[in-house]
Amino acid sequence: MWRLQTRSLVFASMVLAAVASVDARAETRPEPLPDPLTVSAAMAHATRAHPEFERGRAEVAATAQQSVVAGAGAPPMIMAGIDKLPLSMHGVDFMLLGQYGFPLSDVRALRAEAARRQGLVGRAALDRLAVDLPEAAGLAFVDAWQAERRVEALDAAAEVARTALVVAQARVAAGQSGPADVLRAETELSTLAANRSAALFAVRARRAALAAALGRTALPESLRIASEPPVFSEPPGAVEPDDGTSATGTPASLAGSVAEIAVAEAEVDVARARYGAELSLQGGAMISTMEAPALVAMVGVTLPFAGEVRDAAAAEAQARLVATRAAARSAALAWRQAVVEAKTDLDAARALRTALADEVRPRARQAVELLVAAYGAGREGQGALLDAARALSELDARLVDAHADVARRHLRWVRVRAPAAAEAGFAPEVSP
Questions:
Q1: Mean pLDDT of the region 173-182
Q2: Contact 320, 271 (CB under 8 A)
Q3: Region 210-228 average pLDDT
Q4: What pTM was estimated for this model as a whole?
Q5: DSSP string spanning 192-256?
Q6: What rounded mean pLDDT belongs to the chain?
Q7: Mean pLDDT throughout 105-109?
Q8: What is the enclosing helix (H) or strand (E) of 315?
Q9: Does position 15 have pLDDT exceeding 70, yes or no?
Q10: How open is the CA angle 368-372-378, to the nearest 5 degrees?
Q11: Taking 70 as the threshold, does the pLDDT of residue 235 lie above it?
């Protein structure tokens, strides 16, 4: 009977452990991704699911408590003592005293304010993280999209090579050319197949990088990536330099500088009040074996002899404030330069992509089609057709790169003007 009960308890424990394990896996199961995955969905997912953003939120929550700690004073002290030792005929005095000290200046409130402003620095870091994480996800998405489109470009080139092979086989059968044409076409197909195998490894690597940018260990094998070139819409509240000397808002990249100035200003006030006078109150009771009980009260004030130290601390804090403001101005100048460079680079990338897509590629495609017909009719050799097919394949790969380059530069253009607002996140939708 005892063995049966023991086995029942063991079995019940195993069942409970299995249920707990299932519940734990359910809690940590990643959020499902839309299929096909778009760049906007990837960027939004990075903000919600990446552990780095969770870490940033936790740090902001921890920093929010620093103002309470910084503004607190030393706790009261209770002291007990015995007087007239060693014992003598005059009796013994027992004392119980309490002591509490507090500054006569507002240094505690100033320290609390400095700590509160330090929390703004952490908040600015979270704002920037809300921009950096989606940007990293967007760049990883573009890389994965580019790798998959390169495979498609190789497939298109292989289709032309297969057409050349079919025509060569027909011409050989008709006695119009030798077997060398068939061998050249087969060599071209084998080369494209080898390039495709290498490109598939690049796709796997890019998908793994995209999974990491999304805060996941891997992407589902069946998950498709949207085939349309990723294009980003303008973010709400995008910050624009107006006249070269000021801006219409605070970009996320400069929010930290603004918060650091506020902290440096508060530290100047703390340094000036740090070495002020402090009042100490002491009171209690004294009980004697020879005399009547008595109350004890004392008042003490620290002497502010640290004038030179206070002045030095204030001068140091003031110098750091000047340095922080200068660093902020330098960062603002760099930001304006980055805005101009991002827009210029984006315009250049768009111009190249438009030229390749609208002017160059149609001509290259038409040349291949004409050469296929001419080779079949015996008016052109196979070498001209394969050369044109290679040129078209290289052009398709270059066009894929041009689309990816536009996406990266557009993402940089959107990111550099993103406002400092962690609540809104940073996940611009794909433009239609």
A1: 85
A2: no
A3: 90
A4: 0.75
A5: HHHHHHHHHHHHHHHHHHHHHHTT-S---TT--B--SPP-BPPPTT---BSSSS-BSS-BHHHHH
A6: 80
A7: 78
A8: helix 307-355
A9: no
A10: 135
A11: no
Where along the chain do its domains lie? 39-74+107-274+327-416
Is the per-residue pLDDT at 214 higher than 80? yes
Proportion of the chain above pLDDT 70, given as a percent: 84
Plot region of 84 (φ>0 → left; ψ -120 to 50 → alpha; else → beta): left
User: Smallest Cα–Cα separation from 275: which of 300, 299, 307?
Assistant: 307
* Separation of alpha carbons 325 and 318, rounded Å: 11
3-state class (DSSP) for residue 278 = strand
- Residue 353, CA atoms < 13 Å, CB-side half-sphere: 18
Q: Per CATH, which fold does 39-74+107-274+327-416 belong to?
A: Outer membrane efflux proteins (OEP) (1.20.1600)
Burial readout 336-358 (b: 16 or more C-beta within 10 A, e: otherwise): bebbeebeebbeebeebbeebee
SS3 of residue 99 by DSSP: strand
Report yes or no: 39 and 230 within 8 Å, Cβ to Cβ.
yes
Q: One-letter amino acid identity for 360?
A: V
Record the tokens describing residue 326, joined without a space: 């200068």
Cα–Cα distance for residue pair 340/343, rounded to 1 Å: 5
Residue 104 per-residue DSSP state: S
| Statement: residue 105 has pLDDT above 80 | no
Across residues 238-242, what is the average pLDDT?
71
